[in-house]
């Protein structure tokens, strides 16, 4: 393999010798350059294609079944293409769009430009193009007009594909051309998985991708006849290339001068090796003096992968955010970041200094404890090297790269030599979303990002003071303010904090009734049916230090009710949902069962125990020296790691196989959920389960007896979820649970200031007005 890489490098060096000594920058590739002219609005076309591919992916339960696909190919070949040939005048295609099944076959066919042109010319003696229709209203009109023409032209052929996708079939005998098309369409069914990240549709990203695609074409033109290896497009360039191909007449006209060179580009499902990847990287660096890979523009060693590498964070396009109605909640935005380093030859020569120098990555804001170090000697080769690959919340503001020198008697001590800063706002305005900085004129550092997109919400509940029926904290301060009028009722309270530590809800759980006043009656536990849970929107109104009142607006309640037969507990939510809980005789966490009944007609919902679907944690199966699989104790330990986790899955007409919309840990009262999942519903669900299990177990399962705000880690020191390292990042500092998704080691991430609140609660003394432990034990699990 090393000889292949050396050969690729030598080939690139030979090609570079024929180039001009002046490098071209991406920003210098002019739109007016006739040799690189693209006669298509690639940005709008790519957005439209992504929307179309998503619709095709969502239709997988019927569109990709063999009977449906065979009928779609027949309709395309026998009906649609002859219709288009009749309606095409000159090179201008008619402004119509076919039904989705025919358009899908057409799209896949155009991704083989040579085959498609041969097909068109052999049957119609001309190349059939596609109209550039990007506006939704125009699309609806084009589809309606197509239907009218179709009905007149083919009165006995339905406009929609009416084949029963579930019907049985025998393999038909296909003519070679149609059989090849069937194989091509069937292969492309997973194409959307390569571009499903939500930032792909962002205008800023697509503008940068268009610039890089034009740079790729420029590179092909410059290296014409000099490069023998095939070239591998990065994912952003690939998206633009496929979009360009999907408009065949425009593609043929734009690239007629470099048509032979386009045959060297690896298509989406072809297998490629390290040699081709290195050749492409080296040629790009030679042409533009930039790393080929970038954030949102990865390049893989093998394109022939149905399911891409699982990213460490889960994000996808959300059509709506139902939580916009809660003014106390602010969305969470994530972006992907890559940082590359390249040294000058002079710096590489000083090996002793290189051993003493390190690069350190820190954040501009948030996560002050983050210090990711790489030694300068790690970048000793001549090309760009990726130093860090991570995902950051937009609130981190940017990254700082420091050049530090180790010195003194303490090896760990170091002094800052020079720093460079990359702010997200500057990168968003930069060409190709990429900026270059220098350190000491000998080190080049390039950072690239993807546009920030809305990510799942992260909320955690932390203990807070006991409150009375009105929502005021029970304390001498409130008594004095109320002229010593007694405070009625006792409620456990939990403050809900978002990813940035902001209070957004207050959860209150009723456990006691009666009055408390000095020397007077003490509250007593209420019946189970009266132990309601309520959620109030907003933050505490503090009147003195940490003493205050809960917000007034109640946005959700959970009321205990008589459970059905064979169930141990039941709750009725104000959202219209009903939760039932059952505990098998084993009385272990694994014996818990949950049921959800929803009044929403458009979907059904299930609770799956453990981390499932996108939250599943796959671990290598441990073996002993003899190859034996793990023993029973190891299996029990793995089961224990899943305790407390529940995955909320919704089933709809568009997602018949289910889609996970939330992950809950009811023992820690921590939730992660998609924007289309209601925050109040998820919090009610999590709290009700904890209350139910604690009552059935007769044990404080989630530290409910804690009735004071515990000291949290200082805001900004190690903010959970603010920075997540990519698993293939070059950085070795991945041991911290705060640099991984929270659910990989939730117990460590959610502990309060180093104290583990999931085992033995801290020893706290409570005042008489707050009530004794016995009151709350009676109100929770006795």
Looking at the chains present, what oligomeric state does this protein adopt?
A: single chain
Strand content: 15-25%
**What characterizes the major β-sheet?**
13 strands, antiparallel
Radius of gyration, taken over Cα atoms and rounded to an integer in Å:
31 Å
Q: Note the overall shape.
A: globular
Number of helices: 20
Round the mean pLDDT to the nearest integer and report it.
84
Quickly give the structural class.
alpha+beta
Which parts are unreliable, with pLDDT below 50 for 5 consecutive residues or more? Answer: 1-22, 301-308, 622-627, 753-759
Question: What is the number of strand segments?
Answer: 25
Helix content: 25-40%
Ends distance: 68 Å
Can you characterise this structure?
The chain contains 20 helices and 25 strands. It is 29% helix and 22% strand. It has 782 residues and is α+β, with helices and mostly antiparallel strands. It starts with a helix and ends with a helix. The chain is globular. Among the domains are: 44-194, no CATH class; 456-610 and 659-712 and 752-782, no CATH class. Residues 1-22, 301-308, 622-627 and 753-759 have low confidence and may be disordered. Strands 10, 11, 12, 13, 14, 17, 18, 19, 20, 21, 22, 23 and 24 form a 13-stranded antiparallel β-sheet that branches.
């Amino acid at each position: 393999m090393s000889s292949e890489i050396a050969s690729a490098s030598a080939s690139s060096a030979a090609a570079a010798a024929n180039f001009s000594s002046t490098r071209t920058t991406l920003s210098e590739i002019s739109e007016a350059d006739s040799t690189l002219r693209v006669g298509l609005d690639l940005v709008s076309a790519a957005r439209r294609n992504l929307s179309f591919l998503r619709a095709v992916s969502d239709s997988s339960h019927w569109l990709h079944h063999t009977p449906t696909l065979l009928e779609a190919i027949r309709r395309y070949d026998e009906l649609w293409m002859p219709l288009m040939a009749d309606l095409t005048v000159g090179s201008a295609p008619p402004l119509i769009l076919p039904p989705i099944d025919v358009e899908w076959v057409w799209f896949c066919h155009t991704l083989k430009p040579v085959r498609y042109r041969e097909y068109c010319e052999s049957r119609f003696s001309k190349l059939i193009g596609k109209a550039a229709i990007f506006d939704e209203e125009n699309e609806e009109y084009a589809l309606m007009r197509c239907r009218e023409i179709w009905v007149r032209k083919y009165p006995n052929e339905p406009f929609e594909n009416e084949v029963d996708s579930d019907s049985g079939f025998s393999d038909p005998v296909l003519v070679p051309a149609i059989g090849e098309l069937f194989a091509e369409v069937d292969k492309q069914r997973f194409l959307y998985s390569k571009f499903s990240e939500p930032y792909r549709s962002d205008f800023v990203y697509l503008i940068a991708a268009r610039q890089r695609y034009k740079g790729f074409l420029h590179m092909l033109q410059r290296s014409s006849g000099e490069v023998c290896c095939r070239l591998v497009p990065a994912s952003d360039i690939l998206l633009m290339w496929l979009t360009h191909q999907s408009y065949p007449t425009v593609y043929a006209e734009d690239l007629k001068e470099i048509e032979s060179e386009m045959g060297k580009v690896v298509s989406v499902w072809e297998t490629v090796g390290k040699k081709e990847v290195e050749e492409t990287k080296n040629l790009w660096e030679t042409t533009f003096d930039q790393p080929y890979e970038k954030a949102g523009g990865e390049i893989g060693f093998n394109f022939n992968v149905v399911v891409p590498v699982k990213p460490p964070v889960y994000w996808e396009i959300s059509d709506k955010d139902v939580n916009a109605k809660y003014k106390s909640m602010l969305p969470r935005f994530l972006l992907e970041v890559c940082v590359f380093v390249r040294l000058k030859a002079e710096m590489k020569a000083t090996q002793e200094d290189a051993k003493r120098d390190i690069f350190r990555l820190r954040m501009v804001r948030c996560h002050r404890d983050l210090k990711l170090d790489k030694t300068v000697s790690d970048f000793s080769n001549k090309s760009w090297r990726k130093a860090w690959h991570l995902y950051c919340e937009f609130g981190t503001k940017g990254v700082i790269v420091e050049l530090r020198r180790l010195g003194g008697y303490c090896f760990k001590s170091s002094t800052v030599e020079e720093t460079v800063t990359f702010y997200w706002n500057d990168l968003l305005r930069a060409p190709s979303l990429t900026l270059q900085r220098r350190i000491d004129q000998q080190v080049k550092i390039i950072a690239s990002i993807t546009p920030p997109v809305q990510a799942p919400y992260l909320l955690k509940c932390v203990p807070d003071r006991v409150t009375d029926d009105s929502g005021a904290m029970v304390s001498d301060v409130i008594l004095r303010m109320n002229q010593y009028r007694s405070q009625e009722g006792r409620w456990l309270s939990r403050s809900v904090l978002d990813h940035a530590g902001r209070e957004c809800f207050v959860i209150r759980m009723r456990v006691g009734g009666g009055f408390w006043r000095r020397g007077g009656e003490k509250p007593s536990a209420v019946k189970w049916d009266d132990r309601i849970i309520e959620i109030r929107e907003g933050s505490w109104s503090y009147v003195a230090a940490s003493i205050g009142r809960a917000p007034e607006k109640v946005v959700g309640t959970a009321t205990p009710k008589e459970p059905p037969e064979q169930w141990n507990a039941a709750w009725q939510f104000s959202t219209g949902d009903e939760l039932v809980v059952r505990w098998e005789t084993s009385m272990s966490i694994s014996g818990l069962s949950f049921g959800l009944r929803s009044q929403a007609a458009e979907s059904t919902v299930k609770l799956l125990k453990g981390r499932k679907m996108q939250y599943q944690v796959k671990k290598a199966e441990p073996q002993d020296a003899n190859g034996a699989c793990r023993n029973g104790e190891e299996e029990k330990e793995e089961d224990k790691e899943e305790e407390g986790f529940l995955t909320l899955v919704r089933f709809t007409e568009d997602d018949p196989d289910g889609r996970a919309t939330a992950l809950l840990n009811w023992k820690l009262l921590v939730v992660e959920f998609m924007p289309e999942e209601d925050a109040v519903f998820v919090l009610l669900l999590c709290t009700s389960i904890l209350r139910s299990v604690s009552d059935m177990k007769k044990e404080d399962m989630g530290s409910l007896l804690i009735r004071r705000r515990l000291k949290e880690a200082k805001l900004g020191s190690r903010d959970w979820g603010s920075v997540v390292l990519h698993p293939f990042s070059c950085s070795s500092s991945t041991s911290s649970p705060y640099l991984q998704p929270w659910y990989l080691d939730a117990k460590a991430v959610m502990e309060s200031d180093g104290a583990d609140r999931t085992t033995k609660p801290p020893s706290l003394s409570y005042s008489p007005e707050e009530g004794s432990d016995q009151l709350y034990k009676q109100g929770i699990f006795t």
